[in-house]
Amino acid sequence: MADLPVDSRGYPVPWFVAWIDGPDGSKVPEFRAMDGQKFGRAIRERRCWVCGERLGSYLCFVIGPMCAINRISSEPPSHLECAQWSARNCPFMSKPQMVRRETGPGVDPSVIQSAKGNVAGVMIERNPGVSLLWVCRDYEIQRDPNEKPLLYIGEPLRVEWWAQGRAATRAEVEHSIETGLPLLLAAAGSRGEVESIDRRRKEVDALLPAA
Questions:
Q1: Nearest-CA neighbor of 91 among 118, 127, 137, 136?
Q2: How far apart are CA 107 and CA 86, in angstroms?
Q3: 34, 90, 42: which is closest to 62 by C-alpha?
Q4: For residue 66, what are the domain limits?
Q5: Has residue 9 been placed in a domain?
Q6: What's the number of CA atoms in the CB half-sphere (13 Å) around residue 171?
Q7: Tell me: the pLDDT tens digits for 93-121?
Q8: Cα-based torsion angle of the residue sequence 20, 24, 26, 32 in order, rounded to the nearest 10 degrees
Q9: What is the pLDDT of residue 108?
């Protein structure tokens, strides 16, 4: 993390962030968009999505409750420590009440739309309010109907639930699941997918925080 570049505010810029042309022609980070080339490198070279350094035996995926149910991530894994840093500092995770700005001064709508279009799978456009740090040893690459890569994550060895930069309560996690599940079920394409979601949802219950 100490080797990451910083923006004009002195804020560290995660490795995956795309850099675009700023008003004066210099490159500036666009935190709402990922660098597609970094995605490929993260997979091929087994690099941390946040700091860009090599990963070890343990992988940490930062996902929402719905991704915990379907075991799918659209982003490569990180070090656990880097994921914890993200959970504490990323505005989307630590301040879920904030709205991600997609128009206005300093925002390039084409970059935002391109970022959305590059997301594999079905994107559920909501802030779940809680994040799950899912530690495992492996994952498999699958393809969505558009041939974009999705990561099917392995069995959890450790999980941490986060909300607003701190450990999430069970009530917060349960609320996020209850409000997100209808959206996930609506995206299911068959009865088999619905039954799989129901089964996986019960498995996630065993991973909820105690209180």
A1: 127
A2: 22
A3: 90
A4: 50-98+109-205
A5: no
A6: 0
A7: 767 655 555 554 555 555 545 444 455 65
A8: -30
A9: 55
**Burial (Cβ within 10 Å: 0-12, 13-18, ≥19) of residue 149:** middle
Are 112 and 123 a contacting pair, CB within 8 Å? no
What is the C-alpha to C-alpha distance for residues 140 and 164, in angstroms, rounded to an integer? 30
**Is the distance from CB of 133 to CB of 159 less than 8 angstroms?**
yes
Which residues share a beta bridge with 131?
162
Domain count, the chain: 1
Give the DSSP letter of residue 52. Answer: -
8-12, 14-18, 123-127, 142-146 — most confident range: 14-18
Q: What is the distance between the alpha carbons of residues 12 and 15, in angstroms, rounded to a whole number?
A: 9
The neighbouring-strand residues paired with 149 are 143
**In a domain? residue 22:** no
Q: What is the pLDDT of residue 48?
A: 98
Residue 13 lies in a domain: no
Distance CA 106, CA 143 (A): 34
- pTM for the predicted model, two decimal places: 0.84
Q: Hey, what are 32's tokens? A: 């709402």
